[in-house]
Protein 1
Amino acid sequence: MKNCSVLLLLAALGAATTWAAAREVSLRLLAFDAATARPGGMAHDPSAKQALPAVAAPIKDYLNHEAVRIQLTGVEVLFSKSGDPAEAAKPDQRIASATLPATGSQFLILFLPGADGTARTLVVDDSTRAFPPGSYQIFNLSRQPVRLVLENKPFEFAPGKSGVIQDPPVQENQHSAMYAFSQVDSKWQRIGSGLWPHPGTRRSLQVFYDHPGTGRTQLKGFRDVAPPAPPAAE
């Protein structure tokens, strides 16, 4: 009886250690386009030693306050069409996987078109410290250097680089004259122009990418909602 009690105690301690090592993360999921959206997506923790229940993780092509909360024992998240952990990673069920930073609890995951019906993922720190209200976050997923000009102020991004433009310059009407360029054969070619409103209390995600059909660099934006205000101190 004593040996049985010891074994039960060790098992309980092991379970408590595993639970303590897990962290809860909040994930907002964004599809790059309607074809990449997966409203029935499920999120799994592939690092868990024992299979854990999947969490509903709809992948939509717009942003709002909705977030998926999941307990993770590692840094990987697996997204699948199936809620069954035994089936989730199978090629016909797998949607994508994402590697999160080892620290932090709020992330935005952008799902980009991939091969064979799967998606590639881009993980963005979704905290207001890294992505403040009133800012644009720019990602250059193109193979070319790009330049964004707001009210004659240039911002350049090398391939694979990103940056935050906080409180962008604007005219009296609270809009910025925007010009976008891609560098081809050492020459800057304009790829877009328009008027961008100041984000105000909101945020905006802007992505440079190469069109899969033409290979030309394009710019696509996603307007975000205002992040929730922190709770008032008691």
Note: The chain has one helix and 16 strands.
Protein 2
Amino acid sequence: MPKHRLIAFHPAGTPDSDYGRIRTNGMWYQEWQGGYHDILKRGYPRPKHKTTILAELHSPITPDFLHGGAVDVPFLVSSRVKQIIRQEKLTGIRFSRVEIAKVATKGKRHRQQTRGEPEDQILKAKDQASAVAPPSLHAVYVTGRFDIVPEFPSGRCPDSYVTPYDLPTSGTMPDLWCPTIQGRTFAAWFYCSQRFRDVITKHAFSNIEFESFEEQMARFRGDLRRYEQEKN
């Protein structure tokens, strides 16, 4: 593998069980997702702006980063994170409003659910939003784009999986970005710059870890090899 002069990372939440991920990150949706319309069907008023995120939380006490969205909106952040991102003038980021449609618990210690579907911890709980102070959260839209070097120019492997790819040897990388192939965005992951990682790490924000681009892509290539071996 060529030695890259550019460095990138894949941000993700801290490892946890499926139940733990729901308790930590909640569930939240964009206007085009089914969960958004399920919330509206339960009587929540439709937001004025289509970019508004509707969130259902397990607890009013949330970490600095909440993960689980689509690639273009990979996480929600606390007001503290938003302030630092703007203060540091990190690029490739646009913020949007988040409305808390439901809070499942008051945030007190209780027996953790380990049966049923993980989502039931929120969906089957009584809404406590009127009894607690909901957190102030902000949606992060990834506006940065950066051309990568794909193994398959179409963006897909012959078996229709996302193509593995490498970083170019030069270029101006936004601080938060989605990969493109000759300017065309394709179905892949999102990444951040070394600068983004350094700023977030410096302030010790909670519920975020960083995997290097090389490690993440090596793991993906390994998954593809195992799939090919199992298929044959």
Note: The chain has two domains: 15-141, 145-231.
Protein 3
Amino acid sequence: MTLNKTFFLLLGILLTMALNSVDAYPNKYEIKVIKEKIETSFSNLFQMWKEELYFEMYDHGQKKSRTIIAKPEFAQRMVELKWKPTLKPIKIENIDIIYRNFAAIKCLIEFENKINQTQIVVKEIIFPAILEDINWKFDLIQLIRSPFIGKYYEPPPPKPKEPKKVEPANPVEQAPAEE
């Protein structure tokens, strides 16, 4: 009897583990849906930044960030920044899904100086995104630091144009050289 009970107990434990184990990495369809949602949330966040709607941006912050910084302080620090994203669309290079609720967004962001808008800097930055409740949220502290972090990106210089060879319309025949 004890052998039989042990067998059923182990079988029950294995079945419970098998049924409760959920794959942390999503399938192809889920990846597509997740990437679309992240891209939409990220674009909305940066659109608010471009329009300088800092109190609305705060609502897109992660819970951890909101416990570190209060809404008025966040808005004040964003106002004090010397750089903001330009009106050009942000180029998202890659969205790396790490888990179902955690992703990393690699993007190129063009920043302009708020005072002298001719000063432009392009930065390559990776933003973490976390699914909280039903929305994707972003690190507010990183947003404050984003003009200062990441790599400066310099597009490759344009290739020099080769001069066109112009041939005369009527080539003049030359007489053979005399000895």
Note: The domain at 25-152 is CATH 3.10.450.100 (Nuclear Transport Factor 2; Chain: A,).
